[in-house]
Amino acid sequence: MEALTSLVKRRNTINEQFIKVYDFFQQQGFVPADQASYPIFKGYEQDSRLQERSAAIIASWSIEFNGLYKIISGYLCSVYFFRDSPVYFIIHRPQGSVAYSLQQIVDRLYDLVRSIGLPALRVFAVEDRFLKEYKAINGYDIQVEYKEKNSAYVYRTKDLLELSGSINYYKRKRLKNFLDNPSVSLHPLTKANVHLCLEIEKQWCKAQDCEYCESFCGCEKKALGIMVSLFDERVQKGLLCYYEGIPAGYIICEKGNTEVAFLYFGKGIIPGLFVYLIYTMFSRYITDAEYMDINDDMGNSGLRQFKSHLSAHELWRKYLCTFTKAGKQSL
User: Fold this and answer.
1) Cα–Cα distance, 298 to 304 (Å, whole number)
2) Which terminal Cβ of the chain has fewer Cβ within 10 Å, N or C?
3) Are the C-beta atoms of residues 62 and 87 closer than 8 Å to each other?
4) Residue 4: pLDDT over 50
């Protein structure tokens, strides 16, 4: 009954024409990606530079993204359904040497999408360094698409901590209200206090338009609830901020590898507080990652403004590769 209820909730957010496609993939052995799948995805993170390949993000958001996954010849293949977007896949490689090529996996997935009537196989979040291999796959017309709004906002940590110059005016202006302020106290997140992040999120949500907010990628409060339940202070790092004794902000990060740390969730109910939390996290707690990846702006102009003004930054491209063959008809 619980599984059926979960499926009904998922279906409510899926474009009606794709319900049969969702059912088809379940019949092919794909199962829902959720909190229980976290350990499986954790084994496939490897040296990921993009949040879409982080187990914590997948587990937290996949219910909102209607995610299904299956391990095919050692590759972890996940498929996602959105109300107003075509179905797409993310492919995770197994660690070490592999017996099957990416060509064979694309062939398998292409046969599946065509057998249910989808016009093409769409693979998303392909990093620059892997694009050449995807473009070299034989037997397909391959369209490579890039949209700036899908790019990850990435900051060198040395730039995050830099306060001089006109480019850092926004940062300095916000930090001055919190640095050395006796009303501010910080506490590392633990299993015992991480639930307070949800209380802060609820306060933030009161000032938001739910329909507008959810239109970008789903309900962040629901995703944060899953993140709170799987939070492991040995893996994730976080800060809880009190202002005059009242919980007022939080930040949750994870060092993915030696190169990049991910900023997963964070809020400040006082203007400028979130900037202070980012600055403090990377000046005191995550000091050995070269980059911080805060992900894309999801088409949200407010997020874009915040991320573009936070500090000097780079945009790491995420490519969508679409595989088709001549003569194939659309769904």
Assistant:
1) 8
2) N
3) no
4) no
Tokens read off for 302: 């407010």
pTM of the model: 0.89
Question: Nearest-CA neighbor of 185 among 123, 240, 253, 250?
Answer: 240
By DSSP bridging, strand 152-156 and strand 236-243 are unpaired
Amino acid at 115: S
d(CA 199, CA 244): 16
DSSP state for residue 150 in the 8-state scheme:
G
CA distance 145 to 18: 22
Contact 66, 26 (CB under 8 A): no
Chain length of the chain: 331
Q: How confident is the model at residue 329 (pLDDT cuts 50, 70, 90)?
A: very low
Q: Which of 221, 206, 256 is nearest to 54 (CA)?
A: 256
Residue 173 belongs to what H/E stretch? helix 169-175
Does the CA dihedral 186-188-191-197 come out positive or negative?
positive
Whether residue 112 contacts residue 72, with contact meaning beta carbons closer than 8 Å, is answered with no
d(CA 83, CA 68): 15
Beta strand pairing call for 152-156 and 184-188: unpaired
Rounded mean pLDDT, 163-182: 93
Q: Of 157, 154, 159, nearest to 287 (Cα)?
A: 157
Strands in 260-268's sheet, in edge-to-edge order, are: 184-188, 236-243, 246-255, 260-268, 291-293, 152-156, 314-316
**Distance of alpha carbon 59 from alpha carbon 265, whole angstroms:** 13
Own/partner contacts of 287-291, CB < 8 Å, gap of 24 or more, are 287/157, 288/255, 288/258, 289/157, 289/255, 289/256, 289/258, 289/259, 289/260, 289/261, 290/156, 290/157, 290/258, 290/259, 290/260, 291/49, 291/154, 291/155, 291/156, 291/157, 291/259, 291/260, 291/261
